[in-house]
Design goal:
This protein is of the alpha/beta class. Helices cover 41% and strands 21% of the residues. It contains 15 helices and twelve strands. The strands form two sheets. Strands 4, 5, 6, 7, 8, 9, 10, 11 and 12 form a nine-stranded mixed β-sheet that branches. It has a three-stranded antiparallel β-sheet with strand order 1-2-3. The longest helix has 19 residues. It starts with a strand and ends with a helix. It binds [(2S)-5-oxo-2,5-dihydrofuran-2-yl]acetic acid and magnesium ion. Magnesium ion binds next to loops.
């Protein structure tokens, strides 16, 4: 089988409400649908959500990277040669989200070619995973309303709460209000997206000592090395690395450095091939992982749940899979379902991505 064409289709789907966090705000899913065609008629899909504040990529840069560099590099390639393809793409630095989408679309082709769901090919660990919802920044009462709506609609009982504001009093107030509204059985962890400085994270965690926080992601800039190590040493909960460790080498460096205890794995930035390498690295080092979310649309969510359910390390914890519910629409004939707070990976061959061409025509912005 040979790759005959690689397309990058930019599209825009509005959010029902803006999703705010300490390093940015997303108001529209201005993502890119990557489509890889083959000479056997099998077509693979993936979604690339650009996050300029994290990786310096934009919708335009992802389209250009795919069209100008990756499409010519893939022409005639065997989709089963993922290692060769990723070595070729690695000659160009950066562009993690564009590369990840290419890798995921290749896996979609491989699954269809062998007639197996990619979840089985990757490891087939669990039939479904618990879902964590990310709560964007807002006033404490807005955040409580958001959490209650998601709990009541989808049965979700795990929340990642965005924090990282200065001064941190409003964050502490919001987390306390959430704990009191949601009760003790709900899992809650925090993500400051590098927003806090100095010992703010330690002070905020001390103020939340009785709030049942499970972990804290990206308390402040990882480049503030001594501050970060001090936070990790003194924190009463594990510190999770996310945007400070977006590649296997960075994961190794931060873990060995004492700059985080756990790692967030996002398939939208490391695809399946490199995400699996990060799972293995973390297992070898005895570090926990959590399946994160790059404010993924529905197509990227199918990739996320596939990976999360395939591996024991990611399936054992709730996975962040629900960002798409705050988008006004998707590109699929059937959106992913969250039932009783859980999501099951698609069981069709490949990734189970059935694109609705009318929706693509409606939301694409390149015509
Ligand atoms: C997170 O975990 O930081 C916000 C932007 C992004 O790329 O990921 C999110 C959530
Ligand atoms: Mg994060």
């Amino acid at each position: 089988m040979k790759v005959t064409a690689v397309e990058a289709i930019p599209f825009e789907i509005p959010f029902r409400r803006p999703f705010a966090f300490a390093s940015g705000v997303a108001t529209v899913a201005d993502h890119v649908l990557v489509r890889i065609r083959t000479d056997e008629g099998i077509v693979g899909h993936a979604e690339a959500p650009p996050r300029p504040y994290t990786y310096g990529e934009s919708q335009t840069s992802i389209v250009a990277a795919v069209h100008d560099w990756f499409s010519p590099a893939l022409a005639g390639a065997d989709p089963f040669g993922r290692e060769r393809i990723s070595a070729t793409l690695a000659r160009i630095v950066g562009n993690p989200t564009a590369k990840a989408a290419v890798d995921i679309a290749l896996w979609d082709i491989i699954g269809q070619a062998v007639g197996q769901p990619v979840q089985s090919l990757l490891g087939g660990y669990a039939a479904s995973v618990r879902v964590t919802h990310m709560l964007g920044l807002g006033s404490p009462s807005e955040m409580v309303d958001d959490a209650c709506r998601v709990r009541d609609t989808y049965g979700i009982s795990a929340f990642k709460v965005k924090v990282g504001r200065t001064p941190f009093g409003v964050d502490v107030e919001a987390v306390r209000a959430l704990r009191s509204a949601l009760g003790d059985d709900v899992e809650m962890y925090l993500d400051a997206n590098r927003g806090w400085r100095g010992d703010d994270a330690l002070r905020a965690l001390a103020a939340l000592a009785d709030a049942g926080i499970a972990m804290l992601e990206e308390p402040g800039p990882a480049d503030d090395i001594l501050t970060r190590r001090r936070t990790v040493e003194r924190s009463p909960v594990p510190i999770v690395g996310d945007e400070s460790c977006t590649r296997a080498a960075e994961v190794a460096r931060l873990l060995l450095d004492g700059s985080c205890d756990m790692v967030s794995i996002k398939t939208s930035r490391t695809g399946f091939t490199d995400s699996a390498k990060i799972v293995g690295l973390c297992e070898g080092l005895g570090a926990g992982v959590v399946l994160g979310n790059q404010v993924d649309g529905a197509v990227a969510t199918l990739a996320g749940v596939t990976f999360a359910a395939a591996h024991r390390a990611t399936a054992e914890r709730p996975a962040e899979l629900s960002a798409f519910v705050d988008m006004a629409d998707d590109l699929l004939t059937e959106p992913p379902e969250i039932v009783d707070g859980r999501m099951a990976p698609p069981q069709q061959p490949g990734l189970g991505i059935t694109i609705d061409d009318d929706k693509v025509d409606r939301y694409r912005v390149d015509r």
